[in-house]
Amino acid sequence: MSAALDLSLREQAAAIAAGDADPAELLEATLARIEQRNPALNAIVETFPERSREMLAAAPDGPLRGVPVVIKDEWPLPWRAQRFGAAELPVPTTPGESGPYLALRDAGATIVGVGNMHELGAGSTGNVSVYGACRNPWNVERCPGGSSSGPAAAVAGRLVAGAVGADGLGSVRFPAAYCGLTGLKPTFGRSAMAGHHMAPITNLIVSGPLCADAADCRLLGSVLFGEELAGGDAAGLRIGVVRDPVSEDVTPEVRKACEAAIEDLRAETGGEVVEIDLPDLVAATLSAVLIINAESLNGTTVEGLNRLHPDLSPLARGTLKYRMLLPASALVQAQRVRTLTRRRLSELFERVDVIAWPTIPAPAPPLEAPMVELPSGTLTADQANVRGAALANLTGIPSVSAPVGLSSERLPIALQLQAAWGRDELLLDAAEALERANGRRWVESKPPLAEAETTGV
Amino acid sequence: MEASDRSDDFIPAGLASLGVEADEVDLAVMGAVHQIFWPPILELLALDTSEVVPERNPDLSRAPR
């Protein structure tokens, strides 16, 4: 066992750089831990020890030299094509050097495995995948969140200290929230995206880091951005809050924890809370959903739809076909709503620095029935979750999800902060301020699976 | 009949016009998806955006000009 195994991402990097930890030992200990813990989680769908050892042997002296990480099944690796959590994709994929792979390699990181994901990236729960459901380390009968389910479960289960996800409609933030992690959805275009099969056409999807806390996200985010995300203090933070279902149609526990966190953040930064108006949020959400559904038609043909792989889930099969029927008039309207919303946000960010609301309206639902009970009634988790996530993808702004509590069932609760374009650093500053305010209580909370023992592997 | 209830006609006819085949399970899934999607799509189409000039090739990494 390597003593570095349970350190944070930045502590692992620092220990290796200082010669206090042997990266080869850390790699072998990580692989052993994956073997030990992954069967309960199904977070990692493939390891390749020889490739990992080769990466380590060739690792440059970068900021993550020798640090093991996981990458979502959404990008090609030189030795493996992405499967997108599905039996089949509309477009063929081949192995290759994707942007996130190159960023990790050039930083000296060691990719130890590929993370599970919700089938075709089309769900916020992570319970549907060609590899089987991924499980939440906080309760293995609960959803880990999606679509970056495996990366999140791998970090929360302390299989690795950092992982790369992707966010097209909340897919970094949902699993971060369900698993008690910090997850950054970068400003559109700032993080490495080359090689993604949707990269040529998407203007919603970004790569993003999933880590235990904001400082680790800053380190991994800097690698993905190709530039240092400098730290600040978020002093005098102006926090915008909305009176809207996105803040209010949430469980009482989520509402209480998030309102307390907002007050903690205000007090810690010496800032202020400003009530703001953000009209047509429902239209903005639907617009993002329509646009990503249209983008997802890339490569789709009638012939392809008529010979879909039999192992695609019934939901995926039906949804793929239904997308062909989306009216063009609605997509044009969605672009108008996008413009309108971007202009409104641009004005709003003159008055506030961040907009805060719960990342998820309810903690992780059961794997077998991902429904949530909200004040307005029972909804599918997907319907409920997307309301709080789509704004950032539609408009391109950055967003971070940070843990702010545990429910009575000991499931994580999370607050989402959104900022103006290019202010990713401010979001990490604010998340760090929140950690200071609560004594790092929530970022240092570990699920039972990771608490079980730290003396073995 | 509500517009959202017309999936019995809309979906099979739409798929047939495209030449897309669908079995009973596909149709059941699409019917359920339609029930969720269609009412807000109609609301979206009813939104008055006549004053909004969409951005041409918007740069989503920046605020709108």
Fold topology:
The complex is a heterodimer of chains A (457) and B (65).
Chain A: H1 9-17, H2 23-41, E1 44-46, H3 49-57, E2 68-72, H4 99-106, E3 110-115, H5 149-156, E4 162-167, H6 173-179, E5 182-185, E6 206-211, H7 214-225, E7 238-242, H8 245-248, H9 252-269, E8 272-276, H10 281-295, H11 302-305, H12 314-323, H13 328-348, E9 354-358, E10 371-374, E11 377-380, H14 381-395, E12 399-406, E13 412-419, H15 424-437, H16 448-451
Parallel strand pairs in A: 2-3, 2-4, 7-8, 7-9
Antiparallel strand pairs in A: 1-3, 4-6, 5-6, 5-12, 9-13, 10-11, 12-13
Helix pairs in contact in A: 2-3, 7-15, 9-15, 10-13, 10-14
Chain B: H1 7-18, H2 24-46
Would you give an account of this structure?
The complex is a heterodimer of chains A (457) and B (65). Chain A is built from 16 helices and 13 strands. Chain A has helices at 9-17, 23-41, 49-57, 99-106, 149-156, 173-179, 214-225, 245-248, 252-269, 281-295, 302-305, 314-323, 328-348, 381-395, 424-437, 448-451, and strands at residues 44-46, 68-72, 110-115, 162-167, 182-185, 206-211, 238-242, 272-276, 354-358, 371-374, 377-380, 399-406, 412-419. Chain A has an eleven-stranded mixed sheet with strand order 1-3-2-4-6-5-12-13-9-7-8, with helices on both faces. In chain A, strand 2, helix 4 (99-106) and strand 3 (110-115) form a beta-alpha-beta unit. In chain A, helix 10 crosses helix 13. The termini of chain A are close together. Chain B is mainly α. Chain B is built from two helices and no strands. In chain B, helix 1 (7-18) packs across helix 2. The longest helix of chain B has 23 residues, at 24-46. Chain B is elongated, with a radius of gyration of 17 Å. The interface between A and B is large, with 47 and 38 residues.
